[in-house]
């Protein structure tokens, strides 16, 4: 082979090797632990440059595990967890590793039961021993011995990483890799299966139904009643339009409420108490408004004044709560929010013309 051709070929190979990310060239089987510990099973986890190693001991149902994150930052936290309730962080029984205020790698157990990334130290539903964290050559490694039971021999695993602000854990990114960091593991057979990011289609359906109901049709019905009824020519058309909007809003709202109940039953480890409680209150108020339509006295009836107070107060309270709950739903769909916060200012008096609301948002 011509010398110049060999030189060109070598240069191409060198360039290709430099272009291949180091994370792609790594495999779990090629790694050697500093303690020379050997594991019979290992898995290259599909995202976040992570690897899992384990030895399963059937005699006492324990597993020695090592979770390794390559290219780890000293300013991040790292979690590996088991979650029998689903492929999600919520409800996870987690092993957490990070660098403490003394810049030393630290590990402890934490049960993740809320959306807040506080991750305080707590016991898990199973026993964990020999837990420690090691940081070497840019790799964060969590070592532990797990006491397994029937439900944990083959279950879901979740791994995750996120930034720290001083000594405070902050929420992880919602990038595709972070959403796909789930899968299953079978300690007995030594197999793992990559999971997929949880579909948000049900959440989207729930959100659209409720946004249309409480955020569009219900306010539109109030606007029609407030501004069209003053025109004589619009009487009684305004009333039928108002009733049609409010009835449609209620029917769609019931569908949205039902999808919310379904989401809750499908996610036993996930609770959004504030959003749920406001939703229940909204449903009760809207039902009261339906009864108000059925019990509506004639304009000259002696109880019409009290009915008006009842109908208007419940209606405006429903609108105020619906706005708050819509933004609560936005928070759930996008928990990162990029530091944005929404506020609602509502002023109310018995005179409908003095009802106003204003939205604002800021960092």
From TrEMBL:
The chain crosses the membrane at residues 207-225, 237-258, 278-295. Heme b binds at residues 206, 242, 275, 311. The keyword Iron applies. SMART domains: B561. InterPro entries: AIR12_DOMON, Cyt_b561/ferric_Rdtase_TM, DOMON_domain, UCP037471. Residues 1-25 form the signal peptide. Residues 168-363 form the Cytochrome b561 domain. Residues 48-162 form the DOMON domain. GO terms for molecular function: metal ion binding. PROSITE patterns: CYTOCHROME_B561, DOMON. It comes from the Eukaryota. Its cofactor is heme b. GO terms for cellular component: membrane. It is a multi-pass membrane protein. It is found in: Membrane. Keywords: Electron transport, Heme, Iron, Membrane, Metal-binding, Signal, Transmembrane, Transmembrane helix, Transport. May act as a catecholamine-responsive trans-membrane electron transporter. This is Cytochrome b561 and DOMON domain-containing protein.
């Amino acid at each position: 082979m011509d010398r110049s051709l060999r030189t060109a070929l070598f240069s191409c190979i060198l360039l290709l090797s430099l272009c291949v990310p180091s994370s792609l060239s790594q495999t779990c089987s090629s790694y050697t632990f500093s303690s020379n510990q050997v594991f019979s099973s290992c898995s290259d986890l599909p995202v976040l440059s992570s690897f899992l190693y384990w030895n399963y001991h059937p005699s006492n149902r324990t597993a020695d595990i090592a979770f390794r994150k390559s290219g780890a930052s000293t300013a991040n936290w790292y979690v590996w967890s088991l979650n029998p309730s689903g492929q999600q962080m919520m409800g996870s029984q987690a092993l957490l590793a990070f660098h403490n205020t003394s810049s030393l790698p630290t590990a402890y157990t934490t049960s993740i039961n809320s959306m807040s990334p506080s991750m305080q130290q707590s016991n898990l539903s199973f026993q964990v021993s020999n837990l420690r964290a090691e940081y070497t050559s840019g790799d964060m490694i969590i070592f532990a011995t797990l006491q397994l039971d029937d439900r944990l021999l083959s279950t879901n695993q979740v791994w995750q990483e996120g930034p720290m602000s001083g000594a405070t854990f902050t929420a992880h990114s919602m990038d595709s890799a972070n959403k796909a960091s789930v899968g299953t593991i079978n300690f007995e057979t030594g197999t793992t299966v990559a999971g997929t990011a949880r579909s948000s289609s049900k959440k989207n359906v729930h959100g659209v139904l409720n946004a249309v109901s409480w955020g569009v049709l219900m306010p539109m019905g109030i606007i029609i009643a407030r501004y069209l009824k003053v025109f004589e020519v619009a009487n009684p058309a305004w009333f039928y339009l108002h009733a049609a909007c409010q009835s449609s809003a209620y029917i769609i709202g019931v569908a949205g409420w039902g999808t919310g109940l379904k989401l809750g039953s499908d996610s036993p480890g996930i609770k959004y108490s504030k959003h749920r409680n406001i939703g229940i209150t909204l449903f009760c108020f809207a039902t009261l408004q339906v009864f108000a339509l059925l019990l509506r006295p004639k304009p000259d009836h002696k109880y019409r004044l009290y009915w008006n107070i009842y109908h208007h107060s419940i209606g405006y309270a429903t609108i105020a709560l619906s706005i708050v709950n819509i933004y609560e739903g936005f928070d759930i769909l996008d928990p990162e929010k990029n530091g944005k916060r929404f506020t609602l200012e509502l002023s109310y008096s018995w005179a409908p013309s003095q009802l106003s609301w204003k939205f604002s948002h800021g960092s």
